[in-house]
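Q: I'm building a small set of examples for a reading group on sequence design. Run inverse folding on the following structure and report the sequence directly after it, with nothing in between.
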């Protein structure tokens, strides 16, 4: 009889575990994944969909099963185990009073039963259900529907009571609650998916651009008029021809005098096809209308409008109607895929990863303060670039650092200096095992340090490098990747990929 009771107790623990397994699987499984499988005609997926659609009812059925198993286990298992223990204590060479034996046997039986119930009936199946949520939901849907049908009356009553109480308290039922994923959560989910190897890093960077794309306005990516290359009706043809030859664009804004007086645009094809035989073409006769957009227009909308209307170049105006810049279709596309270069602008192209000296990249560095950080990175640069004067360079960097901290926030610092002896920019990159105290706007501890040295004659290039690092630093997934890179080579490869794929 005792053996039978122990067997029944073990069976109750297993059944309890099965209910827990299914419960956590149903809560964990992604409805979107089940819906996708159901659309492909999966019968189990269709049944799982029906269960998820009435999740409150089926959770009530599961809870009924768990409760019955737990109560029955206490009713059957505890006396059986206590009886075995009582017999053991009674056979001891010394005598114990019946009350003491009963107390000890009851306590040990309760402890053993509780341990078995929690570990085998709760913790283990819970973990399995979470890890195998999809498979469990698919295979358990039919048995769960059968159990719910058998226990329909008590389950329906309990589900009704729980839903009514939830609504009274101002909450929704489980099946009615909406699982809306925010953009930030989607970024994190995509980052985790990439870390598991199911999403290429390049595609992750492209998706990051897509998220940022929706909130970008035309005024943020346009070329300001003062930087625009234009053809002028007030200038002789020879000067305009020199502009065309030097810049090699296919479209040029046409103005009466300066960029503020743009009246249209000229396409190089028109010059070749319509005015090739003319010594001095009349640019006004070749003028094409130039599309106009507002600086507040979302580029997401313009990406649809431009191709539909054949627009490749547009004039951007502010709220007052004043021209402020030029926006091309290429500018918009670059926000998605990164820099786009043609045959004529390749020599001017540069990348941050191309400026990083491979021998001056290190992970797991240690430094107690800013001074040590700069010194260590300079030494690495000196090893790769022997002509670098470490002492003089340190003085220049530290002089600026004491006046203005190079901590830019998000755990990144960019100590930098311009050196007359340099002919090209060089960058060192260090990742520190423990945060280094760099004063920063957000007070975030610094673990990524870019040490930037540029020629004194190119201040604009230094500014572009700083802007590029700041732009890359806003990407949370990239920062997390850089902080987890296993080697200097991996760190540089991540930077190279992001530098190519992420829009500036």
């Amino acid at each position: 009889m005792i053996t039978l009771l122990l067997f029944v107790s073990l069976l109750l623990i297993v059944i309890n575990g099965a209910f827990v397994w299914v419960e956590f699987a149903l809560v964990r499984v992604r409805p979107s994944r089940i819906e996708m499988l159901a659309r492909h005609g999966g019968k189990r997926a269709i049944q799982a969909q029906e269960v998820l659609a009435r999740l409150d009812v089926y959770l009530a059925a599961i809870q009924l099963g768990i409760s019955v198993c737990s109560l029955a286990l206490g009713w059957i298992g505890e006396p059986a185990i206590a009886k075995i223990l009582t017999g053991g204590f009674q056979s001891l060479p010394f005598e114990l009073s019946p009350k003491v034996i009963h107390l000890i046997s009851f306590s040990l039986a309760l402890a053993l039963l509780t341990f078995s119930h929690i570990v085998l009936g709760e913790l283990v199946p819970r973990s399995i259900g979470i890890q195998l949520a999809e498979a469990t939901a698919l295979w358990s849907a039919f048995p769960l529907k059968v159990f719910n049908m058998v226990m329909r009356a008590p389950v329906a009553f309990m589900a009704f009571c729980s839903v009514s109480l939830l609504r009274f308290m101002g909450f929704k039922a489980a099946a009615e609650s909406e699982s809306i994923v925010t953009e930030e959560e989607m970024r994190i989910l995509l980052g985790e998916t990439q870390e598991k190897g199911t999403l290429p890093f390049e595609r992750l960077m492209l998706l990051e651009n897509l998220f940022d794309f929706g909130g970008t306005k035309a005024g943020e990516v346009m070329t300001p008029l003062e930087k625009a290359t234009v053809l002028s009706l007030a200038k002789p043809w020879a000067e305009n021809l020199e502009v065309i030859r030097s810049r090699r664009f296919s479209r040029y804004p046409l103005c009466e005098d300066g960029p503020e007086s743009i009246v249209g645009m000229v396409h190089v094809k028109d010059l070749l096809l319509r005015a090739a035989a003319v010594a001095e073409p009349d640019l006004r006769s070749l003028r094409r209308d130039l599309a106009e957009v507002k600086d507040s227009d979302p580029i997401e909308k313009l990406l649809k409008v431009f191709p539909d209307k054949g627009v490749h170049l547009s004039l951007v105006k502010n709220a007052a109607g004043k021209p402020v810049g030029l926006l091309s279709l290429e500018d918009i596309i670059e926000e998605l895929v990164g820099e786009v270069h043609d045959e004529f602008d390749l020599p001017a192209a540069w990348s941050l990863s191309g400026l990083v000296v491979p021998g001056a990249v290190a992970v797991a560095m240690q430094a107690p303060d800013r001074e040590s950080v700069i010194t260590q990175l300079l030494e690495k640069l000196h090893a790769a670039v022997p002509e670098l004067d470490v002492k003089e360079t340190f003085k220049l960097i530290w002089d600026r650092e004491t006046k203005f901290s190079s901590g830019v926030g998000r755990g990144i610092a960019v100590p930098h200096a311009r050196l007359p002896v340099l002919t090209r920019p060089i960058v060192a990159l260090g990742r520190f095992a423990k945060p280094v105290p760099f004063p920063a706007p957000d007070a975030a501890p610094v673990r990524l340090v870019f040490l930037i040295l540029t020629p004194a004659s190119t201040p604009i290039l230094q500014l572009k490098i700083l802007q590029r690092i700041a732009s890359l630093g806003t990407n949370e997934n990239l920062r997390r990747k850089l902080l987890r890179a296993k080697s200097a080579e991996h760190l540089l490869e991540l930077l190279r990929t992001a530098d190519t794929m992420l829009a500036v």
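Residues 55-90 form the longest helix (36 residues).
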